[in-house]
Amino acid sequence: MKLLFFITIVTFSIGASAGGLTCKDVDGKNKYYHSNMDKLASLAKLNGWYRNTEGFVFSLCMNDIKSADREVLFGGIQADEAGRVAKVLSINYQAPERSHSDILYEIANRKLAEYMCSACASNAALDFVNFPNSQRGKLIKQALDGNASAIKQVTSLYQ
Hints:
By secondary structure, this protein is an all-alpha fold. It has helices at residues 2-18, 33-43, 51-61, 65-73, 79-88, 100-112, 118-130, 135-144, 148-157. The chain is built from 9 helices and no strands. The longest helix has 17 residues, at 2-18. The radius of gyration is 21 Å and the shape is elongated.
C-alpha cells in the first residue's frame, strides 16, 4: 500500500513538473477545467484568465485559427500571451500582426465601455474605426475626447 502511494505521488509529481496541458485538459467538459485553466494561465505567465482567454483557447483547440486570430486582432488577448498559451498547449500558432485599425478599435472599445454596455461599445468602436469621417464617427471621436454632451448622445445612439 505504501509503495503504491509513493509511486502515485512520484508519477503525479513528474507529470505536474512536465507542465504540458492538452486541449482535453482545458475542455469545458473536463471536471478539472477551472484548475487546468488556472494552471494554463500560470504556465503561460498570464495575469489570470478571463472570457477572452477562454475564447482564444476554445478557438485554438477547435483549430479555428480565424477566430483565434480575431481574439488577437481585436485585443481580446495580446499576441505574446496567445503565443505562450499555444506553446503550453503544444499547438503551433503564429499570432497575426495588428493593424493601426485593430489597435484603434481596441482603444476606442475600452474607452467607450466605460460609458455603455460592452456590445454597444464594440458597435460604436467599429463605426468609429470604419467610418471616421461620418457624422457618427465624428460624434464618437468627440465622446472619446471626453465631451460630456457627445458621450450622452453616443450612449443613447447605441443602447
